[in-house]
Design goal:
The chain has two helices and no strands. With 107 residues, the protein is mainly α.
Length: 107
């Protein structure tokens, strides 16, 4: 018979803290990215410029917005992973202390 699923849960604090650092690095990179500029209609010639330039500029504006949002999300996720890791570490420490106390009282 297989062990209950609650016995299979393993939380590796080092891995969680590494993930939080990775998310922090991603947030820093994304938030530090300076995307600017636009395309003039002359870049595509007289025939295509009037059609392509506005579409390219709109796509670039959306890319800037999505990049900024991705930076904010990575930052929020990093904070959440750190907070969760800290909470799990506290629960684990409290459980160890309680078991040690119980063993000391029984022994």
């Amino acid at each position: 018979m297989a062990a209950p699923s609650n016995e299979k849960i393993v939380l590796d604090e080092d891995i969680l803290r590494a993930q939080a650092r990775t998310l922090g690095d991603a947030a820093t990179t994304l938030q530090g990215t300076k995307l600017s500029g636009s395309v003039d209609s002359s870049a595509f010639g007289a025939l295509c410029g009037a059609l392509l330039a506005p579409a390219i500029n709109a796509m670039a504006a959306q890319t800037r917005a999505h990049t900024a949002q991705a930076g904010l999300l990575a930052e929020a996720m990093g904070r959440a992973v750190t907070a969760t890791t800290n909470a799990f570490a506290t629960v684990e420490s409290d459980a160890v202390d309680a078991f040690q106390k119980a063993e000391g009282e029984d022994g």
